[in-house]
Amino acid sequence: MISLSDLKNKKVVSVLKKMFSPHWAVLIVLNVVSCILLCCVFIKGYSESITAYLSYAMSAYALVCDAVNIVPAVNAVKRFKDNNRLVKKYFSDKSFQFNLSMYRSLITNLAFSFLNFLQSNLNSSVWYASLGIYYLALGIMKIFLLRSAGRAESKPRRERMVYELKIFRAAGVVMFVLNGIMAAMTAQMILNDDYSGKSQIMTIANAAFTFTFMIIAVVNLKKYRKTDQPVYSASKMINFACALMSILSLQNSMVSVFGEDDSFRFVMNIATGTAVFILVFGLAVYMICRANKKLKE
Asked: CA–CA separation, 283 vs 238, rounded Å?
């Protein structure tokens, strides 16, 4: 026989579950809003305001909800992975996985290009305009690689490898030329002191996006560097070059926003710019030399 205390305990547990297990859409909105509020509090210095206390309470509630729902969320993702046809194809079909990855990186390139053109318009900056053109050019290269990958699938294995190696080499040559142009634009940026506007929020958002992009680019570069499909390998190397350029852009932006010493910004831009362009030039030379070596073999 169920006692009155057991019924009360079950009722309390049920109420707590409803309280800390909101719908997933509500939970996402809750996390996003709490993050935005916390950023406003810390950036604007509203630590003693009503907004601050509201953001602290909301972020604490969101954190508890996240902890309570992490296991059900993981289980739901696993069920979705096992039952969804496209997801199963993604994990089982390497060609489909590579193509989807290339489309994703193409969208990232175009997004970077758009954001830099926007920054150029807002700050009247030639530097950001050149970055927008650079990312747009790499995005066009991605489109060319996607078309090449589609053409290569219908060719016999030996002919396909030769075709993809030539594409791989061409991508290295284009990267070499583009990097030379960007080196000249970076030198102009440093000499003319053409830096970004003083937007802290944009700089913080750019930092989060850049570091995430850099981690993914490094992991994919290591994973696909020696794949037997050079077109996909070329795509990942272009991603790495994009990530390196975004590091230079982020460093320039952060020193401009948070630094006060012009000489320090000058030295940092020279040091980071030199390191980035040496790495990208090395990557382009590696692609050309590796393609030539494999073609001879």
From this structure: 9
Say if residues 141 and 174 touch (Cβ distance below 8 Å): yes
Output the CA torsion 15→19→21→23 (10° steps): 120
Q: Six-digit token pair at 48?
A: 């003693």
Reported as type and span, the H/E element at residue 65 is helix 50-83
Tell me whether residue 266 is exposed, middle or buried, using C-beta atoms within 10 angstroms of its C-beta: 0 to 12, 13 to 18, 19 or more: middle
Residue 227 three-state SS: coil
pLDDT digits (tens, 9 = 90+) for 267-289: 888 888 888 888 888 888 888 88
Q: Which residues touch 290 (CB under 8 Å, ≥6 apart)?
A: 168
pTM tops 0.85? no
Q: How far apart are CA 133 and CA 178, in angstroms?
A: 10
Q: At CB < 8 A and 24+ separation, what contacts does 113-117 make? A: 113/139, 116/249
Answer left, alpha or beta for residue 193, where phi above 0 means left and psi between -120 and 50 means alpha.
left
CA proximity to 98, closest of 153, 176, 161: 153
**pLDDT tens digits for 131-149?**
888 888 888 888 888 888 7
Asked if 134 and 123 touch (Cβ cutoff 8 Å), the reply is no
Task: Enter the tokens of residue 176.
Answer: 């070499």
DSSP letter string over 126-174? HHHHHHHHHHHHHHHHHHHHHHHHHHHTTS-HHHHHHHHHHHHHHHHHH
Helix residue ranges per DSSP H, 21-49: 24-44
Is the Cβ–Cβ distance between 21 and 56 less than 8 Å?
A: no
